[in-house]
Amino acid sequence: MAAFEYRQATEIRDAFARHAVRYLFIGKSGAILLGYPDTTQDADLFMEKTPANAAAVEALRELGFALSDTEAAEIVRGKDFVQLKNGPFDLDLIFAPDGIGSFAQAWSRRVEVEGFPVCHPDDIIASKRAANRAKDRESLPRLEAFRDYWRQQRR
């Protein structure tokens, strides 16, 4: 699968807005939207776990995801992690990311970038640190250096 592209983020943003889905870009895709100079193979979304977010199923189908009944049910109930590889790009829906207390907390710290709701870099880093996968541990120093640069630029 091709690397995550800005166009995909725009498509997600627009479809989710039409269906009033609350979410945050998280992971490397979120960091990239903040200006982090790297690539990733998929988009990662931190999804709010509410009945209203069941509308994500229709938004995803509109985007071209061929959701099975099982995947649709997992999204509606807010399964902790739903990985989609059956659409125009790879997408991970995360309802309970490691290292972040709640969606409400992350939402209150979010950063808006060109209409994209993005997790604060501290939350992206906390999630990577808590996941503790080898690839996350390897990227943490670069993410932390980017966060520090990002903070300096916002002053």
Blueprint of the fold:
Layout lengths: L5 H13 L4 E4 H8 L7 E6 L8 H8 L5 H9 L3 E4 L5 E5 L8 H7 L1 E3 L2 E3 L2 H11 L2 H21 L1
Parallel strand pairs: 2-4
Antiparallel strand pairs: 1-2, 3-4, 5-6
Helix pairs in contact: 1-3, 2-6, 6-7
Arrangement of strands in the largest sheet: 1-2-4-3
How would a crystallographer describe the biggest sheet? 4 strands, mixed
The number of helices is 7
Rounded radius of gyration (Å): 15 Å
- CATH class identity: Alpha Beta
> CATH fold name, please?
Beta Polymerase, domain 2
Shape: globular
DSSP, total strands: 6
Task: Indicate how many domains the architecture comprises.
Answer: 1
pLDDT < 50 runs, ≥5 residues? none
Key features of this structure:
single chain; 155 residues; alpha+beta; Beta Polymerase, domain 2; four-stranded mixed sheet; 16% strand; globular
Walk me through what this model shows.
With 155 residues, the protein is α+β, with helices and mostly antiparallel strands. Helix content is 50%, strand content 16%. The protein is built from 7 helices and 6 strands; from the N terminus they run αβαβααββαββαα. β3 (81-84) and β4 (90-94) form a beta hairpin. α6 runs antiparallel to α7. The longest helix is centred in the last third of the chain and has 21 residues, at 134-154. The protein is globular. The N and C termini lie far apart (38 Å).
